[in-house]
Design goal:
Mean pLDDT: 92
Oligomer: single chain
Order of helices and strands: EEHHEHEHEHHEEHHHHHHHHHHHHHHHH
Strand content: 5-15%
Radius of gyration: 24 Å
CATH architecture of the largest domain: Orthogonal Bundle
Helix content: 40-55%
CATH superfamily of the largest domain: DNA Cyclobutane Dipyrimidine Photolyase, subunit A, domain 3
Number of domains: 3
Structural class: mainly alpha
Number of strands: 7
Largest sheet: 5 strands, parallel
CATH topology of the largest domain: DNA Cyclobutane Dipyrimidine Photolyase, subunit A, domain 3
Distance between the termini: 57 Å
């Protein structure tokens, strides 16, 4: 038997045949190692869509590895047996295979990196951790950018990226003479709604994916979410098809309506590409190139293209840099000393707040919500309520199909919950229910009034907004960008403030907002039937 030179570890979010871990791979002396393990779905209460997304993509990647002739040691979970932990599985296979060294592309999760380092050390094996070429920038490059800065603003990093990679540039100037078209990309739909939307691309589960779905429904039966509509891209070919459909059918209107929401329409004009990107089925360079090409071809306006590219070349790269330069301490940050529990109905959708009910229902059904639903609906409510940031983080990591910790944690603790005290955001992103009313029709069929801050009909978002300002007045008063909002507190009398606090206390005790109202749900379903605006 030939001695095994390298055991190449491939994790569930590293599904790229051209990854650095495969550089110098020799089929005669090297082999690939992959394992499905129970712990990766239970260290947070991973939803069925998220678990199925990872496992289906992993099994299809295993088929691709075998088709490429690369020796593979792959362990599957079954509906009858638990697969244990990643480190225990690797330890057992090292003892069996006796490799001379371990090789891997840098993981996207601090916890996993520590596990694998510990296994290598325990077995006195060299662990060759290689740069993840999937990204435009390296962690070292971001660290150099961050060096000496008190705060890490995405905009400055994004401009550096544009210049360095020559994206949407004319000489030394940005195309259109503006770096950022965000102000043009904040429109809500008109009263009649979004009109005929292009359908979501649907991938009928094949035998491999159906087997995963059956196994997940059995082994993780008590986990949240459903799999009856699962149709995410789980192969490289499907991911490329998804990219093509987005560029052709959604990108031209993406920018204009990227912050808009509409009941029973989860997909709208968003790309739905983040899971494929984060599992490495797509390379961000090809995604950015496709979007830039659409602008140069006259297919999509600059505001839409720049807004989309900013999410990939700017924000996505930026949050990865924040994660790896701030961990592990970053996970423990809680600048606002938030200590509330996450409401139990975040896992079920059983709330009579229309906007939250809609966002949670689609999250549980599809493992998906767009960025504005995450930031300004589910995230905003948790921030205003004062939920302990690690509990909010655990929920986001658990429920979304695109959730890998390097991207999810900074978005949650930093951008959404302001738990890092301003490392990422220059202020807490807070608003009353009037913001949701402006960006969607949810409030029309909700029992709560976003214009009221106290009383039985007061919108919990509005109540909690004013309560948040009062609780954190001293801290927020020091922030120039919050000065006007804090100043508005002076308009409230003592009795009005007392009424807000009383209503906020009822909300925190979940006496408000935590039960589904069947008549409202039926009304909403009849008024906004799913699919009645979808074109062929």
């Amino acid at each position: 038997m030939t001695e095994l030179r390298s055991l190449v570890i491939v994790l569930g979010d590293q599904l790229d045949l051209d990854a650095a871990a495969f550089d110098g791979f020799d089929v005669a002396v090297d082999a690939v190692w992959m394992a499905e393990v129970n712990d990766e779905s239970t260290h947070v209460w991973s939803s069925k869509p998220r678990t199925a997304m990872f496992l289906a993509a992993m099994r299809h990647f295993a088929l691709a590895l075998r088709a490429a002739g690369r020796p593979l040691h792959y362990t599957e979970l079954s509906a009858r047996a638990s697969g244990g932990s990643l480190d225990a599985m690797l330890q057992a296979d090292i003892a069996r295979l006796k490799p001379a060294r371990l090789v891997m592309t840098a993981p996207g999760d601090w916890r996993v990196l520590q596990l694998l380092k510990a296994v290598a050390a325990a077995n006195q094996l060299p662990l060759d951790i290689r740069e993840d070429r999937h990204f435009f920038s390296t962690v070292r490059e971001f660290a150099a950018h961050a060096n000496g800065r008190k705060s890490l603003r995405m905009e400055y990093f994004y401009r550096e990226q544009r210049k360095r990679h020559r994206v949407l540039m004319q000489g030394d100037m940005p195309v259109g003479d503006r770096w950022n078209f965000d102000i043009d990309n904040r429109e809500a739909f008109e009263a009649a709604g979004p009109g005929a939307l292009p359908p979501r691309i649907h991938f009928e589960p094949d035998t491999t994916t159906r087997n995963v779905i059956a196994m997940v429904n059995t082994l993780f039966a008590q986990h949240p979410g459903r799999l009856d509509s699962f149709s995410w891209p789980v192969t490289r070919t499907q991911a490329l098809q998804s990219l093509q459909v987005f560029i052709q059918k959604r990108l031209p209107w993406f920018g204009r309506y990227q912050d808009a929401m509409w009941p029973n329409d989860p997909w709208l004009y968003h790309s739905h590409l983040s899971a494929a990107l984060n599992l490495k089925l797509l390379n961000p360079r090809e995604v950015v190139a496709a979007a830039e090409g659409a602008y140069h071809d006259g297919h999509a306006p600059l505001a839409s293209v720049e807004g989309f590219i900013r999410q990939i070349l700017g924000w996505r790269e930026y949050v990865r840099g924040v994660y790896w330069t701030q961990m592990p301490e970053y996970l423990e940050r809680n600048a606002l000393d938030a200590q509330e529990d996450l409401p139990a109905w975040y896992w079920t959708g059983d709330t009579d707040m229309a906007c939250l009910r809609d966002a949670l229902a689609q999250t549980l059904a599809h493992g998906y919500a767009n960025h504005i639903q995450r930031l300004m609906v589910t995230g905003l409510y948790a921030l205003l309520l004062g939920v302990q940031p690690k509990k909010v983080h655990a929920w986001y990591l658990a429920v979304y199909v695109d959730a890998v910790e390097w991207v999810e944690l900074p978005n949650t603790l930093g951008m959404s919950q302001y738990a890092d005290g301003g490392v990422m955001g220059s202020k807490p992103y807070i608003a009353t229910g009037k913001y949701i009313q402006r960006m969607s029709p949810h409030c029309e069929d909700c029992r709560y009034d976003p214009a009221q801050r106290s009383g039985d009909n007061a919108c919990p978002f509005t109540t909690l907004y004013w309560d948040f300002l009062m609780r954190h007045e001293a801290l927020l008063a020091q922030n120039p960008r919050m000065a006007l909002q804090v100043k508005n507190l002076a308009r409230l009398t003592d009795s009005q403030k007392r009424a807000v606090r009383e209503r906020a206390a009822a909300v925190r005790q979940h006496k408000v907002g935590g039960s589904r109202m069947r008549e409202l749900l039926l009304l909403r379903s009849s008024r906004y039937p799913p699919g009645d605006r979808t074109s062929d």
